[in-house]
């Protein structure tokens, strides 16, 4: 990487490096990849990254006790894993632990290399053909959701898949991908797993083999799926950094249509729900996915109130359909993110019940006829703070954007302009909106130099 001598260049490098050591290597022209040791295992640079806690003040996850993950792990709790069973075993327990992921780990591949299909996971009482025949609205109707033996067999099939593809992450854990490590057909379930760090991984295609048909969901009914790529539930102090999330080679656009509705096999990319709190999501790339990030899963006023505090910084949302993020209750700081918005699109930032979203200095590129009033969406929210948005609409010249004014000009009721709080936990001074695409060039997996 060529050294830049101007002030903006130095600030951009500081943002994307994410650590004092990374800044030193970048400014001296050294390559982290060149500093690795034994090529058969984690090199020196990867070992430094694995011991790195979240920096002080770096978003909500720096609050409270901070987020250290497995940085204090002893030698007995440092693992390098190469298949699903090794990964599942390494993630268990509450002791500090470091889990290096190498190569491609496929949740539908057994230890002997056999690839499982959805048919292998299905209960004997379930086939898609029998499900479609039984619950066709022309036969079942639209007044009630499916029930009976075939629906029960579908539920048992879901349990079979969950046992195979959903891996629980214990507390005090750092998971670090080596090189271009990939988790495919898997869900990392961080449930009650406080103090967790996940970095430098490609997450691909946590497809649900057995979606549920709900004719009562909306005016036309909908297919509903399980399984996020990463799910954070009932957890505090979590750092999700430099990962790439996508549907891989199984995009929603390739799915069939049943009962007049898209057969939805994907749920969230990275959802943060069920009283989770103090989470920083930084320098990730979200691409080719629909329901990207749900923060808060229910409108029920209860235990989520006062929690769901999340920071989103230096992420790229590239061609995602919606929920980038959709927020309930939480104080959510969204600054210096890049949004590239195209045809497959509903909205970006959903303002839900009692949400308090602070949008500052984000960059938006809107194409395919998408207008600025569509970036925000009302999900029972009332307020948002927006400052310093910048970007381009269609073929127009890039410049400052006022997304709140654009929304309020065509929608009623208006959103208020004050979310009621100002973020203070920021390790990096926000760059101006025009510079954000530079700051996010090194976002995503494979950019940390971990080998």
From TrEMBL:
Stretches assigned to the Pectate lyase domain: 121-370
Subcellular location: Secreted
Superkingdom of this protein's organism: Bacteria
SUPFAM superfamilies: Pectin lyase-like (SSF51126)
Main location class: secreted
Record carries keyword Lyase: yes
Record's keyword annotation contains Lyase: yes
Signal peptide region: 1-35
Pfam families linked: Pectate_lyase_4
Keywords, ordered alphabetically: Carbohydrate metabolism, Lyase, Polysaccharide degradation, Secreted, Signal
One function term, GO molecular function aspect: lyase activity
Family, similarity comment: Belongs to the polysaccharide lyase 1 family.
Protein name (database record): Polysaccharide lyase family 1 protein
Lineage, broadest ranks: Bacteria, Bacillati, Actinomycetota, Actinomycetes, Micromonosporales
């Amino acid at each position: 990487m060529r050294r830049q001598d101007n002030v903006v260049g130095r600030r951009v490098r500081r943002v994307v490096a994410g650590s004092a050591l990374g800044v030193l290597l970048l400014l001296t022209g050294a390559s982290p990849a060149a500093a690795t040791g034994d090529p058969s295992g984690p090199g020196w640079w990867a070992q430094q990254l694995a011991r790195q806690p979240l920096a002080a003040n770096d978003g909500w996850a720096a609050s409270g006790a901070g987020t250290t993950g497995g940085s204090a792990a002893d030698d007995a709790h440092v693992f390098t894993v190469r298949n699903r069973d090794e990964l599942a075993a390494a993630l268990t327990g509450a002791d500090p632990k470091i889990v290096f992921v190498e190569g491609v780990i496929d949740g539908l591949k057994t230890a002997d290399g056999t690839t499982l299909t959805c048919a292998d996971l299905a209960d004997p009482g379930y086939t898609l053909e029998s499900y479609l025949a039984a619950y066709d609205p022309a036969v079942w109707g639209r007044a009630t959701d499916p029930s009976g033996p075939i629906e029960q067999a579908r539920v048992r099939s879901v349990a079979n898949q969950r046992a195979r593809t959903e891996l629980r992450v214990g507390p005090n854990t750092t998971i670090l991908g080596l090189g271009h490590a990939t988790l495919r057909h898997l869900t990392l379930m961080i449930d009650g797993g406080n103090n967790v760090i996940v970095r430098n991984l490609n997450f691909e295609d946590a497809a649900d083999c057995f979606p549920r048909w709900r004719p009562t969901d909306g005016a036309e009914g909908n297919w509903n799926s399980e399984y996020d790529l990463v799910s954070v539930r009932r957890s505090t102090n979590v750092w999700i950094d430099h990962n790439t999330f996508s549907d891989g080679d199984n995009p929603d656009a390739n799915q069939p249509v049943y009962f007049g509705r898209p057969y939805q096999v994907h749920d969230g990319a990275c959802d943060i729900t069920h009283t989770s709190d103090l989470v920083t999501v930084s320098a990730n790339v979200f691409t080719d996915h629909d329901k990207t990030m749900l923060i808060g899963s229910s409108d029920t006023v209860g235990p989520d109130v006062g929690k769901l505090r999340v920071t989103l910084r230096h992420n790229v949302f590239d061609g995602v359909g919606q929920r980038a993020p959709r927020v309930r209750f939480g104080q959510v700081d969204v600054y210096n993110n890049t949004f590239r918005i195209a045809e497959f699109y509903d909205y970006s930032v959903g303002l839900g019940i009692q949400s308090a979203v602070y949008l500052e200095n984000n960059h938006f590129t809107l194409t395919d006829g998408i207008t600025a009033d569509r970036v925000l969406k009302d999900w029972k929210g009332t307020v948002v703070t927006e400052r310093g948005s910048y970007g381009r609409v269609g073929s127009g010249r890039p410049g400052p954007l006022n997304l709140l004014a654009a929304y309020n000009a065509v929608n009623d009721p208006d959103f208020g302009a004050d979310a009621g709080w100002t973020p203070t936990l920021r390790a990096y001074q926000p760059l101006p909106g025009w510079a954000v695409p530079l700051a996010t060039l090194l976002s995503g997996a494979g950019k940390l130099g971990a080998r």
